[in-house]
Amino acid sequence: MRVLLVEDDVRVSAALAGALRRTGYAVNCATTAEEALAAPAADLVLLDLGLPDRDGLEVCRRLRERSRHLPIIAVTARGEEHDRVAGLRTGADDYVVKPFSMAELQARIEAVLRRVVHAARPTSDVLEVGPLRLDVTARHVTLDGREISLTRTEFEVLLTLASRPGVAVTREELLLAVWQTTFGGGRTLEVHIAALRAKLGNPDLVRTVRRVGYRLHAR
């Protein structure tokens, strides 16, 4: 999970980036609005509003214009009600006031990402990806017309991948969609991916994207 951390206080940025990296996130830091807007694509933005070259609300607005679905959490010392309202109305998905604990921030991150993952779920009752067919309501899977018997968890993993065929789905997104947390208990996800590949009978269908997650090959 790629996090863009926008924070002008170098000491705060270093401490927070270190904590995020220990949790498993890949962190890119920016200290100004200009750096934030020029930064590579991220899966989540933690945005301080008190930036030296431009108000953080303007950065939030610009980022939201670029992507409707990019998770943005304002992380700021501005704690007044009107500040919170302005941040949320500008496009932030959540608003965390300094000081805060890492446990609180992690919970906020997971809550925001769960909403994003849920929004990406299919609205159709049936998904077809190449020869793979998922009946979401009946929780029934066939591959080339052959019925595939999956456990509830295996079905949820496959459904999450099939919702975005051909797209790399991060490990964190899969954990949130299936287990409602980014902490997967060791190699829980990997074990279920291996079982899913074995049942599909074609390991190439679910491909590993190195250092990212997995992708359902839409052939």
Give a structural overview:
This protein has 219 residues and is of the alpha/beta class. It has two domains: 2-119, Rossmann fold, CATH 3.40.50; 126-216, Winged helix-like DNA-binding domain superfamily/Winged helix DNA-binding domain (Arc Repressor Mutant, subunit A), CATH 1.10.10. The protein is 42% helix and 22% strand. The chain contains eight helices and twelve strands. It has helices at 10-23, 33-38, 56-66, 81-90, 102-119, 152-162, 171-179, 188-200, and strands spanning 2-6, 26-30, 44-47, 72-76, 94-97, 126-129, 132-135, 140-143, 146-148, 169-170, 206-209, 213-216. The strands form three sheets. It has a five-stranded parallel sheet with strand order 2-1-3-4-5, with helices on both faces. A four-stranded antiparallel sheet has the order 6-7-8-9, covered by helices on one side. α6 crosses α8 (188-200). The longest helix has 18 residues, at 102-119. The chain starts with a strand and ends with a strand. The model has no long low-confidence stretch (mean pLDDT 89).
Secondary structure: number of strands:
12
Q: Give the ordered list of helices and strands.
A: EHEHEHEHEHEEEEHEHHEE
- The CATH homologous superfamily of the largest domain corresponds to Response regulator
Strand order of the largest sheet: 2-1-3-4-5
- The total of helices stands at 8
Highest-level CATH class of the largest domain: Alpha Beta
The unreliable regions are none
Work out the radius of gyration.
19 Å
- Principal-axis shape: elongated
User: How far do the termini sit from each other?
Assistant: 26 Å
Helix content: 40-55%
Secondary-structure-based class equals: alpha/beta
Name given to the CATH architecture of the largest domain: 3-Layer(aba) Sandwich
> In percent terms, what proportion of residues is strand?
15-25%
Biggest β-sheet: count, sense, barrel? 5 strands, parallel
CATH overall fold name of the largest domain: Rossmann fold
Number of domains: 2
Q: Summarize model confidence as the mean pLDDT.
A: 89
